[in-house]
Amino acid sequence: MLLLAGLGLDFGISDEKLKQIEKCKTIFLENYTNLVSKGEMGKLKTIFQKTKKGIIVLGREQVENEKIILDAMANGDVALLVSGDPLIATTHHSLVLSAKKANHKTKIIHSSSIISAAISESMLQVYKFGKIVTIPFPRNGFDPTSPYENIGFNLKNGLHTLLLLDIDSEKGAMPPNEAFEILEGWEKKLKKKVITEKTKLLVLSSIGKDDSKVVYGTIVQLRKLKFNNPPHCLILPAKLHFMEEELLAFFCLNG
Question: Is 187 helix (H, G, I), strand (E, B) or coil?
Answer without folding.
Answer: helix
